[in-house]
Amino acid sequence: MDLPIVDIAPFIDGDEAAKRRVGRAFGDAFETTGFAVVVGHGVPESLAAATYDAMKRYFEQSLETKLADKAPEKTKGRGYLPMGVESVAKTLNGETPTDLCEALVFNAPHRECRTAKPNIWPAEPPELSGLVKDWCGEILTLTDRLTRLSAIALDLPENHFDPVFEDPALTLRFVHYPDQPEPPAPGQLRYGAHHDYGGLTILRQDQAPGGLEVADKDGVWHEAGVLPGSFVINVGDLLARWTNDRWKSTLHRVSNPERTLTGSTARLSMVAFTAPNEQAEVACLPSCCGEGNPPRYGPVKAGEYIWSKIAASHDISTAA
Ligand SMILES: O=C(O)CCC(=O)C(=O)O
Ligand SMILES: [Fe+2]
Q1: Which ligand ends up closest to the CA of 203?
Q2: For a substitution probing ligand 1, which of 52, 81, 207, 252 has the most ligand atoms within 8 Å of its CB?
Q3: I need a labelling partner for 158 at 20 to 30 A (CA). Which of 145, 179, 191, 278 fits?
């Protein structure tokens, strides 16, 4: 599937007409596929590369070292998550094999003082924490841009979402999909079929084989492909609900690499899940309902809605 490519540079530094044009392209992407490949986003390549390299080094450490960064509680909201804990497709299908990935998760560091559970900062490599903080700053700037663009795309004033995105929820998830020396179990994937839960997801992919796949409306899987330097942006369930399904929360997964390949097939993704403030009430947007199109969903509190989905994706029986 060729995901629509949207250059947002004219939104960042263009006039009103340019902003509207970008808004239209952005909105069309989410109304049709639920995904957009965003370029012209302003996030520096050098920082993306440095953060990626530090994460590679983090995951190269021994399992024992990484397990020191595991959160004591059974959640995936922070710290190191080894393989064998998460089974994301459980949110849809009940029992499924665990995903073939390990992850390092952070709450937006600028909110740390206000969250009950502080982040867990790995000791090695030493540059990692500073880079995660810088990366988070850039992702927050991008989130602000995408939120304003979303408002325009949804025929709302540019600042419509300001009150609920003043202190947005943001989770950074760095995911390593290791080489697969042994064949996966039947039905086992790098990351099982799922919908994201929240607002927009911001994904930085690398070019390793065994990558993101997106389901079309007939349930047929298509490779998303990789455009270097871009971000893949997709709509989560909360945002689909907010827009009365005008924007689609599309099923996606990460496939296993072909077994015939030689050399490393390890993949590392840098993912950011954006959402409004946890306390925000999410009820159908005024531009997404009307005569003949009543709201399909009742109001929910953003934080409660997302946490209920996260809890459902854990392998409660085996998680330590
Ligand atoms: O690694 C990827 O390409 C996608 C990961 C993903 O879908 C997720 O973290 O929700
Ligand atoms: Fe996802």
Answers
A1: 1
A2: 252
A3: 278
Mean pLDDT calculated for residue range 277-297 = 96
Q: Give the ipTM of the model, two decimals please.
A: 0.99
208 in contact with ligand 1, CB cutoff 6 A: no
Range(s) of the domain holding residue 157: 5-318
First and final C-alpha spacing in the chain? 39
CA distances to 144, 148, 290 from 163, rounded to whole Å, are: 12, 12, 23
Q: What is the domain count for the chain?
A: 1
Q: Identify which of 140, 178, 82, 92 has the alpha carbon closest to the alpha carbon of residue 273.
A: 140
Ligand nearest to the CA of 191: 1
Q: Is the CB of 244 under 6 A from ligand 1?
A: no
Helix (H, G, I), strand (E, B) or coil at 58: helix
Q: Is residue 177 lining ligand 1, measured as CB closer than 6 Å?
A: no
Q: What b/e sequence results for 9-27 when a residue is b if at least 16 CB atoms lie within 10 Å of its CB, and e otherwise?
A: ebbbeeeeeebeebbebbb
Q: Are 37 and 230 in contact (CB under 8 A)?
A: yes
